[in-house]
Write a structure and sequence with these properties.
Family: Belongs to the amidase family. GatA subfamily.
Protein name: Glutamyl-tRNA(Gln) amidotransferase subunit A
Helix content: 25-40%
Enzyme class: ligase
Pfam families: Amidase (PF01425)
Strand content: 5-15%
Shape: globular
Catalytic activity: L-glutamyl-tRNA(Gln) + L-glutamine + ATP + H2O = L-glutaminyl-tRNA(Gln) + L-glutamate + ADP + phosphate + H(+)
CATH class of one domain: Alpha Beta
Bound molecules: glutamine
Length: about 450
């Protein structure tokens, strides 16, 4: 009982959950007992899962960590969460995140910061960011509050929080997991994926979450491979590319050393290592921060005070006043910043200069990867340019925050599968992650390389 109480205290202190749903988890545990007795266990029977509060869950409030959707109780279940329940899992609760998944530290949530369970070992006892936007997911898993959770990744939101908290997470190829029922941020980039402590757990979860869905027009109509059964850390015959543009002058020395260590591990597993070039890498961050806000400004137009959640209707107000009052109160500062950038780059005089140009550069970035993959089967890079930073440290400087995504956004723009696995600890005892990027649809090689590293 005392251990349980300690867990409850930790859960509250970390602020990882927005809503707790223990009854759902307990019902799944009971169902698992019955299934075991009947010899009918499912792949995830009884496994309690944390659900990022971006997935619509029938009958359970879904907020996207915004005031705008406070009190919104969907009448439908997202395809991905529905697949998890059908496989026997139960929901522990809805996990905190950056508001509408916009952020890299979980500090843009309307429901407050999430705290990482990690602390520096060099005396600095300040609370650390769990990464973002899936910061509730990463913190809860790292603190052993749940064995697994869902994440979504638009520009790094599965991989960077996994790296900051010493866990693993994979963003599959764009289209592998249905986006139906997931609150949309940037539709051409958003992908769901699992986060868990081990690569094997990720493979098992992804197998359940992936699959064709006629309700998502970008869902891939392909069979889901048996990733877990085919896991192997034997990389003989595989070639690993090391993209030189990911080693800028001034790369943190500990990150560079970890990367070299990762290269050595993959060589030990039998892989051959080659240098490759992704020449347009330096344009990835600005390209992402045009395309993602552009799509967000369009997706978030639906929150008008009429259809969902919040409505602010000042006395005697007309329709326009209601829109303005609702949106002023319902969205946080980062969401407003993205909507303003997005509407600007999509506006008549600037569309070609920004949005069209960004789409062209996106195609060049995708082509870089295609050319690199003529010489190799996977790429190894660091996941983030630093270990977890202190809460508040980058909050006043959006550009410093955006720079944290420098290594994760290129694979998002190209729609490629990418995973972060824990690589080791820095001098302050904080986890560092290694990123594996694969060819489109080749999650197996990504997972196998992850297994070789973990
Ligand atoms: N940090 C990135 C952003 O703020 C990525 C977020 C995400 O992947 N959802 O847009």
């Amino acid at each position: 009982a005392s251990a349980f109480n300690a867990n409850v205290a930790t859960a509250k202190a970390l602020n990882a959950f927005i809503v707790e749903t223990p009854d759902s988890a307990l019902a799944a545990a009971d169902a698992a007992d019955a299934a075991r007795a009947a010899g009918d266990l499912k792949p995830l029977s009884g496994v309690p899962i944390g659900m990022k509060d971006l997935f619509c869950t029938q009958g359970v409030q879904t907020t996207a960590a915004s005031h705008m959707l406070e009190g919104f109780v969907p009448t439908y279940e997202s395809t991905v969460s529905g697949k998890l329940w059908a496989a026997g899992a139960g929901m522990l609760g809805k996990l905190n995140l950056d508001q509408f998944a916009m952020g890299s530290s979980n500090e843009t949530s309307y429901y407050g910061n999430v705290i990482s369970p990690w602390r520096r070992n060099d005396g600095g006892n300040a609370a650390l960011a769990p990464g973002g936007s899936s910061g509730g997911s990463s913190s809860a898993i790292a603190a052993r509050l749940c064995p697994a959770a869902t994440g979504t990744d638009t520009g790094g939101s599965i991989r960077q929080p996994a790296a900051f908290t010493g866990i693993s997470g994979i963003k599959p190829t764009y289209g592998r997991c249905s986006r139906w029922g997931i609150v949309a941020f940037a539709s051409s980039l958003d992908q769901a994926g699992p986060m868990a402590r081990t690569v094997r757990d990720n493979a098992l979860l992804l197998e359940v979450m992936a699959g064709f869905d006629p309700k998502d027009s970008t869902s891939l109509d392909l069979a889901v491979p048996q990733w877990e059964a085919n896991l192997s850390s034997d990389l003989r015959g595989k070639t690993v590319g090391i993209p030189r543009e990911y080693r800028p002058d001034g790369l943190n020395a500990e990150i560079a050393a970890l990367w070299d260590q990762g290269i050595a591990w993959l060589k030990d597993a039998g892989a051959t290592v080659v240098d490759v070039s992704l020449p347009h890498t330096k344009y990835a961050l600005p390209t992402y921060y045009i395309i993602a806000p552009a799509e967000a400004s369009s997706n978030l137009a639906r929150y008008d005070g009429v259809r969902y959640g919040q409505r602010d209707l000042p006395d005697g107000a007309g329709l326009q006043d209601m829109y303005a009052a609702t949106r002023a109160a319902g969205f946080g500062p980062e969401v407003k910043r993205r909507i303003m950038i997005g509407t600007y780059v999509l506006s008549a005089g600037f569309y070609d200069a920004y949005y069209t140009q960004a789409q062209k550069v996106r195609a060049l970035i995708a082509r870089d990867f295609e050319q690199a993959f003529e010489q190799c089967d996977l790429l190894l890079t660091p996941t983030a340019p630093s270990a977890a930073f202190t809460l508040g440290e980058k909050q006043a400087d959006p550009l410093a925050m955006y720079l944290n995504d420098v290594f994760t956004v290129p694979a998002s723009l190209a729609g490629l599968p990418a995973m972060s696995v824990p690589g080791g600890l820095d001098a302050a005892g904080l986890p560092l992650g290694l990123q594996i990027i694969g060819k489109a649809l080749d999650e197996q090689t990504v997972l196998n390389a992850g297994l070789a590293i973990e």
